[in-house]
Amino acid sequence: MINIIVGIITAMAVGFLVFWIFRPSFRRWVELPKYKMLEEERRFSDVRRDQD
């Protein structure tokens, strides 16, 4: 039973990785939160620097 669960999860992970590699639009969608956070951090740093 555990072998089936591990096999299914492994297949899902491989499928996700293949989809991520071959679909740039999906890659951008998946990584969007990272870039939003980095942009907010950059704006926050700029505001703090302006206040000093």
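the 2nd protein, sequnce then structure:
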Amino acid sequence: MKRRQVLTVVFVAAILAGAWVFMRSSQESVIEISPIDLSVDASDTQYSDLKLEWERLTVESYVVRAAQQIWATWPLADQIWTAADYRNINVLFAETNGENAWLVMPDGNIVKFRAEDLPSAYRVTGYPFRFTSSEQTLNGIPTIKVEVDSDLFGGSYRSSEFESLPTSTMLLAFTAHEEFHRVQNTWNVEHADQGKLIEIGQENFDARSQRYEIIRALSLALLSPEDETEYLEAAKWWFEAYQNDHPQEYELAKSMDIFEGAARYFDMAMNVRSVGGFDLSAEELRANYQRMILKDYTLDADRFFGLPDEESYEIGGIAGVLLEMKNDATWKDRVEQGTPPLEILLENYSASPQEPSPEVMNLVEEIRHIRSQSDK
């Protein structure tokens, strides 16, 4: 994920003599630790604009806000994707400095404690966004672990956050996205060789240009629904050119477009609903997605470095959003059976001949320049 890793443990949370008890497994000892009071009110939204209030915030306020987003979305995640049942999945956030940890339960509870008391399989590694999926269990409950940078608010605002959703957190989108890859384990899709994809694609700027043009056309289709047909016909042109000109790369990129593209769509859909709720109208949903495209999922050299796997997120994500806007009832089932979201979206459109856009030409030149400077 661009805004972008396992021992089984049993974790018992019970109050004994005023302490929470955590049991690792039947082979390991019971660990007793005392809960720590939160320094913030977990019922408070924490901030109204993350960027503007960055300097006053703490890791705890950020984690609590992520917890609130989890409470708003985990019980209803299967409304976005049927197989994504997050209702009984806990999330463990731990500071990278090993000081504090927070166990978030989807029923609205959060428990803070010392990270040093974590069982071995959940120990802190010190790497921000180190992810452990819910395939591991704590107290028999599937539990995700995500490490949060303890120095997050010691520097300037992180551009990976969402300006389009100023009360959101990157933690929510990241956690939802990475856990969705576990959901994908049952899909009828084979993983292609990602290393080979990068090897043949990283210097193939003709292919990169074609894929950037697809992203540009999809973005414009979402931003300008009155001209959607025009832009999707343009996307079809660039897709067919890519498929015909670079058949080996196309085959290698196909599974990435499915796995990462669908996961990006899912995290976008969860993120929007974590702030606006699940009763948003189609117009409200589109407006939120449009702000994401304009503010956060921009087509520029801050987000793209000329690697083919990068493109899969946006191509599949935006295609998924457009399919959602069309109320297509079958597209998710078809994705699970191996058809990329883009191909489902474009199948009833005719290709309209296109010329390279100045935006994409400038982006490719900027990437080339950055690459040449980094090689020196």
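Confidence is low (pLDDT under 50) at residues 1-33. The two ends are 28 Å apart (CA to CA).
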